[in-house]
Amino acid sequence: MFEAVEIGNALSKEAYKARIPDLRVNLINAQYDLQEADFPVVILLAGNDRLGCNALLHTLHDLMDGRYMRTNALGCPTAEELERPRFWRYWRTLPRRGQIGVFLGAWPLNAMQDYLSGNLKKVDLERRLEHIRRFEQDLVADGALLLKFWLHLSKDVFKQRLKAAKKNPREAWQIEAEDWQAYTVYDDAIKVAERVVHETDTGEAPWHLIESRNARYRDATVGQAIFEALSQRLQHDSADTSPHMPVAPATSPQAPQPTILDTVDLSTSLSRSDYRRQRTTYQGQLSRLSDQAAMQGISSILVFEGWDAAGKGGVIRRLTAAMDPEHYNVFPVAAPTPEELAHPYLWRFWRRLPRAGDVTIFDRSWYGRVLVERVEGLASASEWQRAYSEINDFEEQLGDSGIVLLKFWLHIDQDEQLRRFRDRETTPYKKYKMTDEDYRNRDSWPRYEQAVHDMILHTSTKQAPWHLIPSNHKRWARIEVLKTYCQRLEERL
Amino acid sequence: MFEAVEIGNALSKEAYKARIPDLRVNLINAQYDLQEADFPVVILLAGNDRLGCNALLHTLHDLMDGRYMRTNALGCPTAEELERPRFWRYWRTLPRRGQIGVFLGAWPLNAMQDYLSGNLKKVDLERRLEHIRRFEQDLVADGALLLKFWLHLSKDVFKQRLKAAKKNPREAWQIEAEDWQAYTVYDDAIKVAERVVHETDTGEAPWHLIESRNARYRDATVGQAIFEALSQRLQHDSADTSPHMPVAPATSPQAPQPTILDTVDLSTSLSRSDYRRQRTTYQGQLSRLSDQAAMQGISSILVFEGWDAAGKGGVIRRLTAAMDPEHYNVFPVAAPTPEELAHPYLWRFWRRLPRAGDVTIFDRSWYGRVLVERVEGLASASEWQRAYSEINDFEEQLGDSGIVLLKFWLHIDQDEQLRRFRDRETTPYKKYKMTDEDYRNRDSWPRYEQAVHDMILHTSTKQAPWHLIPSNHKRWARIEVLKTYCQRLEERL
Lengths: 493, 493
What we know:
2 copies of one chain form a homodimer. Chain A is an alpha/beta fold. The first copy, chain A, has 2 domains: 2-251, 3-Layer(aba) Sandwich (Rossmann fold); 262-492, P-loop containing nucleotide triphosphate hydrolases (Rossmann fold). Chain A is built from 21 helices and 10 strands. Chain A has helices spanning 13-36, 50-63, 79-82, 88-91, 106-116, 122-141, 155-167, 169-172, 177-184, 186-199, 215-239, 272-296, 312-320, 338-341, 347-350, 372-375, 381-400, 414-426, 436-443, 445-459, 474-492, and strands at residues 41-47, 69-74, 100-105, 145-152, 207-211, 300-306, 328-332, 359-363, 404-411, 466-470. Chain A has a 5-stranded parallel β-sheet with strand order 2-3-1-4-5, with helices on both faces. The first copy, chain A, has a 5-stranded parallel β-sheet with strand order 7-8-6-9-10, sandwiched between helices. The first copy, chain A, is globular. At the A-B interface, helix 6 and helix 17 of A face helix 4, helix 6 and helix 17 of B.
């Protein structure tokens, strides 16, 4: 989940300076409109970048009118708070309608701290997360605009930050022993963080994961996200006279540059002879492993998504060549049938789940909801936004039942796609694959990029991570997928 | 929770016969309209009355057109189902839009069985319940009309039913060894059932708890509930052209006769001398116990609800007389202030929570949402319907934090209320208590009865049960409350 935001987002000094004045005017104007409105704004700043949260808060105070914004730094509970139920401290500090309340750390971080310090057992963590979900759900049902930002630092950057801060007189005094302590337990903490973020990333209250490495990028992104969500909600409320309907803020407020896809190294390649050799090796392995899996009743589900002409079919054929046809099924996902449309979205995928020992390969999948259906407007905003948690829940159930689930994104760039389109047109047996629509889709490339980025952010979990496969070079992609599946099967057997 | 439906609901043969023909016509017509509509109906029949679920299903088949209603009896999973993730069996049998799917037992009973048979640990039961909540939430979000009926038998009646069925040739063959087995573990099972029902009783998917003792009452009540929810939804959909908004069915479809309040024995009384003696005893006890509680940092919250003039003030004074003023606070709940209205409903109660060792007495409480606000239309249907689960979550947090929570309903009948109103008007220092509104409220008595009944059904939990106090005789009520609080404190200390 978090690796999807470790992509080196940054904003230059000039770009930052150019954006800030407008953002400030926009935010302050929105804040004034908010005072007349009938809903409160709850901004939650959490993550593993404690100093970053503080710095961001300073920026927000610079960008907005502090008189109408109350900050609640909820770290260790006070004696007074310890004498009450845990959520007392959050309830009593909720902003009233028309105002903004900023919460630092608060419920998600407190849950993490309690668990990591051994004060919460596993079953109690689950209950706490359930209370958090309900708390947030109740706030939203009551009309609150809830914006949750998780500021993430990779382990390397975490260490760099601490070291740098120690040398910087303006920051040194802010570092506490616990920050170094936090670094030593980084790996444990990140696992718990993933669980907490994953379990509280709901349709009503989605998380915005923010890379916190570059302060300018972080502050400008959060500020812009707050402005866009706030102005969207203000517009919605003033236009709409129907009874209140909760509106979830857009998941990613602006096209992130770069996206996670930009981290994929597309220059990889493989010679024909190396390819043949490795193909033989891995297909042999796969054949043996998948027989074993079938005998032990271990099922697999392989999900293939990717750009048009990224080579999904070719990869799938290299896999199935090594598998027993009795035990696998390839299911190409096209537009839903009327029967499928008459059921909830995930129904048609539930129906295709493999029996024990079998393998189902999805050529495109349930991710259509948050990709093509989102980009082409075939699903409403609320439908695709809540799909992330529906899908996570679905995949969690697959994992719990012992199914090996792999998700591949086959990545190519636009030039390579064009080359392949042209190639298809001139290859007699591939011609049928091309339609005008394929060219039209290319215009939506940036919007697909954003959708892919959000998808990976919200659905790449420890249990079911996304594998981004560089596919400009087909041979490389095929070996990469074969190898990945073999490794996963081996771990599992 | 379940004791609230053990009240002897019954319908005579004549009354049943009189109602059935209309109900059948209504249901069949609604079913035809449903075929043109854009939503599916999911009816879940569960509970501890397995034979009752079967019998009810027969009645439903008699009342509706079986061609457009598919039944899914999901008991022990089949071999095919065991090879897939647990929810596969539910997903694959979901009805399509325009159709009715009836599920017998299914997800709630399967969870109970897995837990009771030792296949699910406690932490996994919590996760399973979370999956159930999300599954139901997703169905409703997708547009389904989800109706959940829990058929309950008390332990006595459970045994009688099995014995009677054994003698009845038409039923004897239906009884299985597991039914007797279910009887022997009745007490354990009912605890798990309460947890399952409580945790899945949400605003979007509330449970209808049905007393299953009398088959005619049960079948007519469920049939009527289905008809009302279905026709309400059909009307809503045809009237409304705005985007789909989930509609929760009304919690109790019709005024139950009798309600739980009719089980309160109002003939109890206490002589003046007995009263004095007992008051001295219990006030002495309370004084000692509440000192101890204060020292140990154990807090209490006492909630008083009841009819106007039921004597809440008098009871509260008899309690506080024995308590240290430093440690208690009485908080009379009136209409919310503008500041309170600017926050979520429960905010003003969260703020009043006692610190460790203290006692807060609420003269009226958060239950106003599902009583006066519901009956007088001050809260929207969706607001008061989701309040049950908000309140349960709130009280669960109070319990988890170690607070002793007691909830009293002071019950009087209408005659007694009138007597007290008249009395107030002629007593100089009580005159100020009377307004015309008090008399007007008497007209709403049946609607309040229904609201109280639903409130107790949905919020009387093992951890925080309601105590129904017969209060026609004031002395009796005062002793009863004193005694109950002393007992709870004694258990806790």
